[in-house]
C-alpha cells in the first residue's frame, strides 16, 4: 500500500477521519460544544434550585425556625404545647375529615365522568370538557363566594340551611377538584387498550364484571394519582374554607393564618406547618409512585382507541347486556354533576346583575370607584393582578421549563434516576406547603436577606415571585408528560446523523416542549391570578390584587360591599377561565399534562 504525501502547508485530505490530527477542525469544535452542553445542564439544575432555595425553602425555614428557636437555642417543646390543646386535634381532625370525604366523593363522581367524556362521543363533548375544567382554574376565593351566594338566605339553595356548614365546605372542595379526577383518569382511559376488556366479555363476563375486574385495575394508577392530588388540594385549601367555614370549620391551613395574623403565635404556626408538611409529603409520595406506575404501563403497549357514540336508545339489533345500561347510568350521573357544577357559577352571575331596581350593571360600574376604607378600586386591583400574573407566569415558565427538561431525562445509572426523581418531588412541595407560611416567611426573611443591605419586604417584586413559586409545579406537571412521551429513539437518530447534544436539544426536545407551552401558560397565569394565601401578606395596601380586594369586600359590613364582591368575583372568574380556554385551544397538538 502506498501513501499519498501532501506538500508542506497543504490542508489535510477531504476523506480524513473526524478523529484526525489534534489540529483538525472537528477536534477543536468538539470540546467547545461539550463544554457548552455541560454548562447548559448545570445551569438548568442550578437556576431552579437557587430559585426554590431562596424564595421557598429559606422563607419556610425562617418562619418555622422562629417558632422552634428560643433565645438562640432549639426548643421543641412547642410540639407538646400545641398538641396538648384540644383545638389542635379538632383542627387536624377536621382537615383530614374534609379532605378524605371530598376525595372519596370526587373519585366516585369523577370516574364515571371520565368514562363519558373520554370513552364516549356526543355532540358538545368538547364544551362539556371545558365547563368541567373551569372550576379547577377558578381562584379559591371566587369558589367560596359562589357557594356563599348560592347557600345564604335568599339564595337558590338557602332553604337547605347549609351556609357555614361542614357539608358546604365538602361540596365546594368537590366542585373544585372534580376536574382533577376526570382529566387524570380520562386521559389514561382514552388511550387504554380495550382488547383485554373485550376478551373478558367474549369469555362471558358481564359489562359490570369486565369493568370491575379488568378496566378499573388497569386504571388504578391513574385513580390513585388523582385521589392523592385531590387529597393534597383539599387538605391545603385556604380561600374556600376561610370564606365558607370561617373559624368554625377551619383546617390546618386556615389555622396557620389565624395563629399568625390574629394571635401572633409563631410557635403554634410553626408546629402546624411541620404537621402539614408531613401530610403533604405523604400525599406527594403516593402521587409520585402512582404516576410512575401509570407511565410504565403506558410504555408497554401502543394505545388503541375504542370510542363509541353515546346514545340514549339501544341501537336496533343490539342485544341486552351489551353495556348500554351502564352507559346510560354514567351519562345520567355525569349530567347531574355538570348541572351542579354550573349552578354556583350561573347564580354568581345572576346575583351580580340584580339591583334594587331590577337588573343592571350597577355593581360592575361601582368597581371603577374606590370602595369605602379600601382606598383603591377593584378596577385598579384587576390591572395590578394582570401585571403581577404576567410577571409570575414568565418566571414560572423559565423555572418550571428547566425543571421539566431535567426531570424528563432517563439516566442509565440508579443514582441518576434517584436524583431526577428527587428533583421532581422537591419542586412539587410548593403545592402543599402552606401559602400562609411562605407569605409570612417572606416578611420575616426578606429584611436584609443573607446579610445584604436590602429590604425587599416593601418591594413589589415579592408578589410575582411568591405567585411564581406556586405556579412552577403546574408548569412542570404540564410540560413533563409531553417530554417523557418523546420517543428516545428520535434523539438517538439525530445523534447518529451527526447532531451534537446541543443541537439534539434544540431540534428535538424544545419543539416538542413548545407544544405544551400554551397550556402551561394558561395554568400558570390562572394560578397566579387567583393566588390569595401568600399575596394577602405581601400585597401593598395601595396595590392589592383582585382576590385580596374581594376578600376585603366580603368582610366589610353592608349589602353594597357584598354585591361588589360578587361582581368582582365574576370578573376574576371570566379572566381566569378565558385565559385557560384560549390556551386550551393550543392543546390539540399536545398529549397534555397531568392537569
What layout of secondary structure does this protein have?
Blueprint: H1 25-68, E1 69-70, E2 73-74, H2 77-83, H3 86-119, E3 120-121, H4 125-137, H5 140-151, H6 166-189, H7 195-202, H8 207-235, H9 239-244, H10 252-261, H11 266-299, E4 308-309, H12 324-353, E5 354-355, E6 358-359, H13 362-366, H14 378-407, H15 414-426, H16 435-445, H17 462-484, H18 488-496, H19 501-514, H20 517-530, H21 535-538, H22 546-555, H23 559-584
Parallel strand pairs: 3-4
Antiparallel strand pairs: 1-2, 5-6
Helix pairs in contact: 1-11, 1-14, 1-16, 2-11, 3-6, 3-8, 3-12, 4-6, 5-6, 5-12, 5-23, 6-8, 7-8, 8-11, 10-11, 10-16, 12-23, 14-15, 14-17, 14-20, 14-22, 17-19, 17-20, 18-19, 20-23, 22-23
Strand content: under 5%
| Tally of contiguous helical segments | 23
How would you sum up the global shape? globular
**Which strand order does the major sheet show?**
1-2
Helix content: 55-70%
* CATH class designation of the domain at 85-312 and 322-351: Mainly Alpha
Q: Can you describe this structure?
A:
- This protein is an all-alpha fold.
- It has a domain at 85-312 and 322-351: MetI-like (MetI-like fold), CATH 1.10.3720.10.
- The protein has helices at 25-68, 77-83, 86-119, 125-137, 140-151, 166-189, 195-202, 207-235, 239-244, 252-261, 266-299, 324-353, 362-366, 378-407, 414-426, 435-445, 462-484, 488-496, 501-514, 517-530, 535-538, 546-555, 559-584; strands at residues 69-70, 73-74, 120-121, 308-309, 354-355, 358-359.
- The strands form three sheets. It has a two-stranded antiparallel ribbon with strand order 1-2. The protein has a two-stranded parallel sheet with strand order 3-4. It has a two-stranded antiparallel ribbon with strand order 5-6.
- Helix 3 crosses helix 12, helix 8 runs antiparallel to helix 11 (266-299) and helix 10 packs antiparallel against helix 11.
- It is globular and about 65 Å long.
- The model is unreliable at 1-33, 298-305 and 588-595 (pLDDT under 50).
